Amino acid sequence: MVPKNIVQYWHKMPLPDDIAKLHKTWLHHNPDASIKLFDHEKASIFIKQEYGQDVLDLYLTAALPAMQSDIFRIAYCLAKGGMYIDMATDCLGAADNLFSYSNQLVVMRKWHGGIWNGLIVCEAGNPVLRKIWDNVLDNLSNKKFDDVWKATGPFSFNKIIDAEYENDLVGKNRDVLIVPQQEISKFFGLVNELEHKKTSHWSDIQKEKSIYKNKPTNIAMHKVQVSDELLGFLNENRVYFSPFGADKVQGRFRAGESLIFTSDVKIEPYTCYINGSFLYSFGSFSFSRSPLAPFVKVGRYCSIGARLSILGIDHPKSRFTTSSITYDRQAIICSQFFADHPELSNFQTNNTEPKNSLGVEIGNDVWVGEDVTIARGVKIGDGAILAAKAMITKDVPPYAIMGGIPAKVIKFRFSDAEIESLLALQWWNYNLKDLINFQSDIPIDEFIDNVKSNIATKDLTLYSPNNITMNELEKFLA
C-alpha cells in the first residue's frame, strides 16, 4: 500500500501568498494525510541522508529551483513512497483513491499527450521510478542537456514510461498507471496564473545562463567578534544569549570573544543560546543550555538541557592505526612531530570515515534532558523526549520517549492515531497567535480537533518569520 504522505517542494520559505493559498487546499481536503513541505535546505538534508554525498553534489549542481524540485520529487517518492504533487495545483477533494494502487507508479497524461511529472504516486522502490531516477542522474552527471525539461523534467518520464509500455505487448502486470488529465481533474486543477511564472520562469532563465552550477564547495565557517552592537541587533530580532535578555558583552561573554557560524546558518526569532559560542540553525521558541556545534540543526519549540554532547568524529578503522597521527594536522602532538620530521610531510591523508561529514538534526517540539549523548548522523523525530543520560545512537521515532545506554523506546507520548494526526497537522508550521484560542493544558485530542477545525476554516496562517542568516551577520564581520 502506498503510504499516505503528500509531499510538496518550494525552494525557500516563506511561501508566496498565492502558493501558500494553494498549499492550504491540500491541507484542507486531506486532514488524514501526512502533508510534508520541503524547501531547498530540507531537501538537501534528505537527499544526503538517503543517497549520500555524491548524489547531493549532483542535486546541488542544478542551478534552477525548478530543477531542484524535479530531482527532489523523484528522490523522495523512490526512497519513502507516497504522493508528490506540484505546488501549482488547487486541491478540489480528498486524494484517498490515488493511494489505493499498491504496485504501480501513478502519473498523469496531460491533454496534449505528454506525461507530466507534477504528480507521482507510488510505493518506495518502484522499479519504473528507479529507471527514471537513474536517467536523471545520468543527465546531471554528464550535463547532457542545456534544457530543464530534458535534463531533470518530464522528458525522462516520457522516455522511460513509453519504453515500458512499448515492451509490454500483452498489457498485463504493468508497473505504471497513466491517468488522463480530464479524469484526474476531480482531485485537483492546474493553476498557471501565478506571480513567479510572470517574472522568472525556467524556460526564460535557461536562455540567459547555464542550468548547471560548478561542483559545490564545503560550507564555510565564519567568526564575528562579540560586541554590544551585535548583541543589540540580535536581541532586537528576538535572538538571545541569556534567559532574561538584554545581553551585553560584560554578561556571559568576555571581551574579545567571538561567535562562530556557517554560511548556511538560519536563526528564527524567539530563540536563546544560553551557553556556547556557536550559532547553529535554531527554530523559534527553542532554547539550549548546551553549547552545540554549527552542524547541528534544531527545530521549533525545543528545550535542550545542559551538557548535551555530540559524539566526535570516527577514527579510521581500516588503517594500520586508528591514531590521529595519520590525519590530524592541527593537534600539537601531530603537528610538532611532522615539524620535527619534515621528510614525512606526505604521510598524512584525510580522514574520510562516512559519518564524519554528517550533522545532527533535532526536530520540532523535542525535549532533551541533561547529560544526553547523540551520535553523528542521527535524526531526532518531532515530539520526542530524550531522558537524562541517554545515549542516542540511532534515529529517534516521532513522539518517542527514549532512555538508557544505548537508548531504547520507553514508551510513546500519545496513541498511534494521535501521533499520526499530529505529524499530519505539523502544527508548529502555523502562527502561534492563531493557535492560542484555548488553554494550553487542554487534552491532546481536543487540541488536534481544534487545529483541524481551524485548518478547515482557513483560520490558521503559516508561520514565516524573518530569519537571521549570513546576509545579516556579514556586516559585523571584521
Please summarize what this structure is:
By secondary structure, this protein is an alpha/beta fold.
Please outline the helices and strands.
Blueprint: E1 5-9, H1 17-29, E2 34-38, H2 40-51, H3 53-61, H4 65-80, E3 82-85, E4 89-91, E5 105-109, E6 115-122, H5 127-142, H6 148-151, H7 154-167, E7 176-180, H8 181-184, E8 188-190, H9 195-199, H10 202-205, E9 221-225, H11 228-236, E10 239-240, E11 258-262, E12 266-267, E13 271-273, E14 278-279, E15 281-282, E16 286-288, E17 296-298, E18 303-304, E19 309-310, H12 332-340, E20 360-362, E21 367-368, E22 373-374, E23 379-380, E24 385-386, E25 391-392, E26 400-403, E27 408-412, H13 416-425, H14 432-435, H15 444-456, E28 468-469, H16 470-473
Parallel strand pairs: 1-2, 1-3, 5-7, 10-13, 11-14, 13-16, 15-17, 16-18, 17-20, 18-21, 19-22, 20-23, 21-24, 22-25, 24-26
Antiparallel strand pairs: 3-6, 4-8, 5-6, 9-11, 12-28, 26-27
Helix pairs in contact: 2-3, 2-4, 4-5, 5-7, 13-15
Mass-distribution shape: globular
How big a fraction of the residues is strand?
15-25%
Number of helices: 16
Q: State Rg.
A: 24 Å
- Uncertain spans, ≥5 residues at pLDDT below 50? 168-173
Give the N-terminus to C-terminus distance in angstroms.
Answer: 56 Å
The number of strands is 28
Strand order of the largest sheet: 10-13-16-18-21-24-26-27
* Average of the residue pLDDT scores: 87
| Structure class | alpha/beta
Description:
By secondary structure, the chain is of the alpha/beta class. Helix content is 31%, strand content 19%. The protein contains 16 helices and 28 strands. It has an eight-stranded mixed sheet with strand order 10-13-16-18-21-24-26-27. A six-stranded mixed sheet has the order 2-1-3-6-5-7, sandwiched between helices. The longest helix has 16 residues. The radius of gyration is 24 Å and the shape is globular. About 1% of the residues have low confidence.
